[in-house]
Amino acid sequence: MSAALKVVRPGLFDTLQDLGRIGYMALGMPTAGAMDRIALTLANALCGNPANTAGLEIGVIGPDLLVEADSVRVALVGPLSPSLIEGSHSSPDGPPKPLDSDRTHLLKRGQVLRVGMVEGSSTAYLAVAGGFGLHPFMGSLSTYVRAGVGGYQGRKLAAGDALPLAREQAPPGDEKKLGQPFDYGSGPVRVVWGPQDDYFSSKGRRTFVEADYRVSKEADRMGIRFEGPTIEHSKGADIISDGIGPGAIQVPGAGLPIVLLGDRQTVGGYSKIATVASVDLPRLGRLLPGQVVRFAPVTVEEAEKLRRDQEARVQRAIADFKTARPPGGIDLVRLYEENLIDGVVY
Amino acid sequence: MSVRYLSCGDTAFSVEFGNEISPEINGRVMALHAAIGQAKIAGVVETVPSMRALMVCYDPMTTSRAKLEPEIEGLVARGLPSGVKSRQVAIPCCYDDGEFAPDLAEVAERTKKKKEEVIALHLASRFKVYVLGFMPGLAYIAGLEKSLYLPRRSQPRVRVPRSTVAIAMDMTTIYPFESPGGWHLIGRTPLWMFDQRREQPVFLAPGDSLTFQRIDRKTYDRVAREVEAGTFDWAKLVRA
Hints:
heterodimer; A: alpha+beta; Cyclophilin; 2 domains; 8-stranded mixed beta sheet; elongated; B: Cyclophilin; 4-stranded antiparallel beta sheet; 14 strands; globular
């Protein structure tokens, strides 16, 4: 019997994502990929996976997943309300046990993981040790729903889907957790002017960096449409279409900015006033409708340095993982819980 | 016109060869795209050609803008080769149905023509595929008759149906998927510009010469069924 996680009840918008489908933009293929690459990287690292392993990106409401494998180790990363695990061999009807986020959990056959709600953010991630046993499309497992490619059948998860696992059982090892939640930073979203900042009046550029912009309801994996004061063009909204980098901020004729994210088109014809610095793209990927941001300009060199510093902090966070069971000792809490629920003594 | 290097954040920059659409400028873009591909420069992740610019995507962990830009300048200065092969492609298009062409009346009004005149000019246009982009299989096809030039809509539509034929500025396009879009919708083809069942999922290629061929609704429905079933003979659309 092949190992799988079976979707008992889907969440709102769960898709498999890795770090993106790189190298095919010239064919018009968007990169897609995790909205919050840091959370996915941490989830994978907790499981012992390479950073580019596909995990489940959970949008707002998580799914219920039945374990159809001897065992599986999962990592949940992101601001989730407590997830629940239900059912076990010895006491299938025992009380559900809450599972914290930002750590790994060992699940066994027949158990149902009820992933919690994402709170105060739009995304959280579930990684599995060993990854999912699916074939990449154009070198990546990232789901791109508009073209129906990648991930699990090119779409968000639905009830009855069985996500194949690469491993029949969890690798041996301790459970791990983050030392502390990752600090994404606060304050204005850093941007680099261009490529078409010269299509805007000085008044328009000032508006863009001085005004508050609110995330509208039109926010998804493709991009975020903001509401706020209109940004004045000087040379118009239309350009000869050119490439759109991650985080590009295009301003159509109506004057309101749209930040373009993973599922963005590869090329577009609206002038782009600025581009979100890559250090702050994971923050953009976490925004919810109604939240307010400001944009602050930095130079390319500053943005590159901010990104390198952030990568170093991610690596430190990984080096700083704690064992969920104290090293060399016994996790008394876990021993107690396992005795009550599972009847297993370690 | 001199080459400009425009910032696209800290993971990309755009090499812009001019501010017009011409075979010469696009030829330089495609040539630099090929040259960078061959040069295998450390830290370059991929390059994205468009009408008159090449976006160079890089990994700021491995390299930097300050290091890369002079290398690209070196490639440009050494001179770029040119030359593109061309196919002749005829795309069937149904202009008749109001559902397929919701903007035909507005285009006619804004260009001070009858609807039939707009259709005739679209059919008379000799198009060329410059670039694939926006989404898989979407081609930017220049060569629209001048009297049909209009800017994009100021507020893009949230949903444009698959295979819609649209115009904006001096171009036409065919939407490969349902997607948002800011162009004027004047018809629909029964063909799918992206079909992952095919060995080559993307039908059009940069450099293709292209015209539209008018079909009625009955023909549209018949061809649409063949495309859906995967039995349509795509080769008959192409003359080498």
